[in-house]
Design a protein that fits this description.
alpha+beta, Glutaredoxin, Glutathione S-transferase Yfyf (Class Pi), Chain A, domain 2, 2 domains, four-stranded mixed sheet, globular
Length: 202
């Protein structure tokens, strides 16, 4: 398999999940700023949208959209318990978290990275993000992970997205439960391995 990623982007979550899964794959950097692959070719030839992550399976099938890819990976290694079984309430709850992170957090960070975003719009985005993060913080009370004590693919997604707060100078230190979650995640071997592979830590 091949994982096309951009360092520190949402593809980091998929990178972490692949490390958790212990599956063999080749990481290929596809920086979102240049879209140039290491061999000099254009990433748009692989994915016309230019987005990461993209997971190319051994048979050439290409999967896009992080939440879908992460659940696919989890289902390939059921013994790793990276996602609850399909057709269970717990799986629906996991999908709820994946959708929430994608639409309420991931999407709302995007304008803060865009230099073209009007200055008077950014405070509205920040207010929305902070209110959603406050809710997430409350949901983490008394829990190690989003699903309780059971680690799942939703956790690296939340970890990755909240990493962006530092890049856009958004202070989230007041969310104690989220801070504890992030500190715990940062100690996981798969997280550290993926971040080292992307040059995000030594």
């Amino acid at each position: 398999m091949k994982l096309y990623y951009s360092p520190g982007a949402c593809s980091l979550a998929t990178h972490i999940v692949l490390m958790d899964a212990g599956m063999a794959f080749t990481p290929i950097a596809a920086p979102t700023k240049t879209h140039l692959l290491p061999d000099g070719s254009d990433y748009y030839a692989i994915n016309p949208l230019g987005y990461v992550p993209l997971l190319e399976l051994d048979d050439g099938t290409r999967l896009t959209e992080g939440p879908a890819i992460m659940q696919y990976i989890a289902d390939q290694v059921p013994d790793k318990h990276l996602a609850p079984p399909n057709a269970t309430v717990a799986r629906a709850q996991l999908q709820g978290w994946m959708n929430f992170i994608g639409t309420e957090l991931h999407k709302n960070f995007a304008p803060l990275f865009n230099a073209a975003t009007p200055a008077d719009y950014k405070p509205l985005v920040i207010d929305r993000l902070m209110s959603r993060l406050k809710w997430v913080d409350a949901q983490l009370a008394g829990k190690t992970y989003l699903m309780g004590e059971a680690y799942s693919v939703a956790d690296p997604y939340l970890f990755t997205v909240t990493n962006w707060a530092a890049y856009v100078k958004l202070d989230i230190s007041g969310f104690a439960n989220l801070a504890a979650f992030r500190a715990n995640m940062a100690q996981r071997p798969a997280v550290q391995a993926a971040m080292r592979a992307e040059g995000l830590m030594k």
